[in-house]
Specification:
Strand content: 15-25%
Structural class: alpha+beta
GO biological process, one term: signal transduction
Number of domains: 3
GO cellular component, one term: membrane
Helix content: 40-55%
Protein name: Sensory transducer protein YfmS
Keywords: Transducer
CATH topology of the largest domain: Helix Hairpins
Order of helices and strands: EHEEHEEEHEEHEEEHH
CATH superfamily of the largest domain: Methyl-accepting chemotaxis protein
Radius of gyration: 54 Å
InterPro entries: MCPsignal_dom (IPR004089)
Number of strands: 11
């Protein structure tokens, strides 16, 4: 309580130090519900609460008069804002209450109070730029634009969009951080990310405003498009690799069959050599028989002339058979050489097809790993 004898001293002290108080202050003396004296700092003033202002008609409750004691309370009024009031009774020499001395201090959230200090520095730390917004429960209070990014349509005093689905309303209603991606903001056509954090009264816990930021998502969108293109290209490459793997497997099977066929041909050429050896043996035997037949025909004289002709033809046939055997052998050797050469080529081709199949499997495994990385990239981009 303040004695009426001390009132002039209190007034002089308030007038001298009003502008020294951080955040500002409004001092007022109320008698019979009307303001009879006031002193406001430059940083804080409620213009309507001037001398002669009737507080009773403005639904401002003066609890100190009712309770007959000094009162400290918080006031939140859409007309005057948020402030803390110290109500101190003024008594005369007889102890009678003759008035009340009020000290009004604006209640400013720490973020709001520091906005002018941190916002210009922080906003330039975003690579693509950013746009900060400070609001109360109805309108935009302050903004901070960056050199790289600006939204001219958003400025102090403009009501934020009355949309229950907006991030500002979500933050106010839920008292929690809210964010969303917007493909196009206004007429700019720029995809952005909007994020809003509720500002709560430190005494009551009620939401009193919001701090929000808008950042362009150009790099994120480009990254997402690149990720989608990468996924599509990888899918096409993977499909081609699968077809190549199937072809490699089929080639490998065909090479194995060809190798088996060549081995059978080599086996047949060996059998031909055996048959040539048999023919040569028969030829030698036939030659001996023809020689013996000629000797016997000579002994028989004229009676054996016909038999001698036959014996001579037998020897000729034997010679012809004998001369054919080297040709068959040479032909068989040529076939064998060609087949062996083909066999080596087939073996090389078989090895190459095996290596190709193995390489294709490795490429397929790599493609699967890249595909997995691309999917993870998509998830990361979608979360940005």
């Amino acid at each position: 309580m303040i004695s009426i004898n001390e009132l002039d001293c209190v007034k002089r002290m308030c007038e001298s130090q009003a502008d020294m108080i951080s955040g500002g202050v409004l001092y007022a003396i109320i008698e019979k519900n009307r303001i009879v004296w006031r002193k406001a700092s430059k940083a804080f003033d409620i213009k309507v609460m001037d001398i002669g202002f009737d507080v009773s008609k403005q639904n401002i409750s003066l609890e100190a008069f009712q309770e007959k004691k000094d009162v400290i309370k918080n006031v939140s009024d859409p007309r005057y804002g948020r402030f803390k009031i110290f109500e101190e009774l003024i008594k005369d020499e007889n102890g009678q209450i003759v008035g009340m001395f009020c000290s009004l201090f604006p209640k400013i959230h720490p973020v709001t109070k520091a906005f002018k200090d941190f916002a210009p520095i922080l906003v330039e730390m975003f690579p693509e730029g950013a746009f900060f917004i400070l609001s109360d429960l109805e309108k935009i209070v302050d903004i901070q634009r960056s050199e790289k990014f600006d939204i001219p349509a958003i400025k102090p005093g403009v009501p934020f969009v009355d949309n229950p689905a907006s991030v500002v309303h979500k933050a106010i209603q839920t008292k929690k951080f809210a964010s969303e991606n917007v493909d196009s903001l206004g007429n700019s056509g720029t995809p952005v990310r909007m994020a809003t954090y509720p500002l709560c009264d430190e005494d009551t816990g009620d939401v009193v405003g919001t701090f929000g930021m808008i950042i362009p998502r150009g790099a994120t969108v480009n990254l997402k498009n690149m990720s989608n293109d990468l996924t599509e290209n990888i899918t096409g490459v993977s499909s081609t690799i699968e077809e190549l793997a199937a072809s490699a497997s089929e080639i490998h099977t065909n090479e194995q069959n060809l190798d088996n066929e060549i081995k059978q041909i080599i086996s047949l050429s060996e059998e031909i050599n055996e048959v040539s050896s048999l023919i040569k043996g028969i030829s030698d035997e036939t030659k001996m028989l023809g020689l013996n037949a000629s000797i016997e025909a000579a002994r028989a004289g004229d009676a054996g002339k016909g038999f001698g002709v036959v014996a001579q033809e037998i020897r000729k046939l034997s010679e012809q058979s004998r001369s054919t055997v080297p040709k068959i052998a040479k032909l068989t050797d040529n076939i064998r050489e060609k087949v062996e050469s083909s066999s080596k080529m087939s073996q090389n081709s078989l090895t190459s097809s095996q290596e190709q199949a193995a390489a294709t499997q490795e490429i397929t495994a790599s493609i699967e790993e890249i595909t997995s990385m691309s999917e993870n990239l998509n998830q990361i981009v979608n979360s940005l």
